[in-house]
Amino acid sequence: MRPRPHRPPRPARGGHQSVWLYGRHAVLAALANPERRLERLLLTREMAERHAAELAAARASAKPEILSREELAQRLPAGAVHQGIAALVAPLEEPQLEDVLARCGEHALVLALDQVTDPHNVGAVLRSAAAFGVAGLIVTERHAPADTGVLAKAASGALELVPLVRAVNLARALDQLKAAGFWLYGLDERGEVGIGDLDLAGRACIVLGAEGEGLRRLTVEKCDRLVTIPTEAKLAALNVSNAAAVAAYEWARRRKKC
Questions:
Q1: What CA–CA distance (Å, rounded) separates 228 from 250?
Q2: Which of these, 99, 217, 95, lies nearest to 167 by C-alpha position?
Q3: Fewer CB atoms inside 10 Å of the end CB: C or N, the chain?
Q4: Distance CA 46, CA 65 (A)
Q5: Average model confidence (pLDDT) across the chain
């Protein structure tokens, strides 16, 4: 038997710098994720009593520090809505697209974001992806937000559940999806068919662009088809996170009929 080739360890997502997560859903999801390394856990006494069971497993790696809401706010970035709980965590290991594809079955959906920079939007897309069983989310390595507390708060725990792949070259990643049997659909106002009329059976990737700029030319060229989400004339386009939620729901609805 030939020895397996040595694979160097993958880099941590967003570098090696630890980040503060805050908010009940984001922190509790991180505590439940065995892949997360917990360094500090800060919370109010009320939150400690309310979530004693969830916190029990975390005590071995970091003893909870009980603080007042004001003291907790002082240790976090300005404006952080902490809900009485925060955790300093090491970044997650960088997932590879190959790993995501290996877990995809006959019917699978991957979402891809073309230079979407707002962490609130990316977090909201992750939340929808988790809700509708999306296999993974691809973002560009550049012009995409890091795994900050803002993104994690918006994702409401989904950052721990949905693989977030950072592609150095989005066009190359889309080619890789095509080679794995995925059909690529770009959401664009120029689309010739509504997403509700599209056959999303099998493996599909829905690509969404940044608000205002939309999909880049090379990204459009990689797509098999451009599709739209029909809206009333008074509101020509949806926010990118809302569009992703509609698209993921439409795929999940069709999947149940397969």
A1: 12
A2: 95
A3: N
A4: 12
A5: 88
Domains and their CATH numbers in the chain: 19-89 (3.30.1330.30), 97-257 (3.40.1280.10)
Total residue length of the chain: 258
Angle subtended at Cα 222 by Cα 201 and Cα 239, rounded to the nearest 5 degrees: 75
| Measured distance CA(173)–CA(165) in Å, rounded | 10
State which amino acid sits at residue 234: K
- Predicted confidence (pLDDT) per residue in 188-208, tens digit: 888 889 998 888 889 999 999
Q: What is the pTM of this model?
A: 0.88
Residues 4-48: pLDDT tens digits? 333 444 545 545 689 999 999 999 999 989 899 999 999 999 999
Q: What is the rounded CA–CA span in Å between residue 230 and residue 250?
A: 13
Task: Assess whether pLDDT exceeds 90 at residue 149.
Answer: yes
Contact 91/18 with Cβ under 8 angstroms? yes
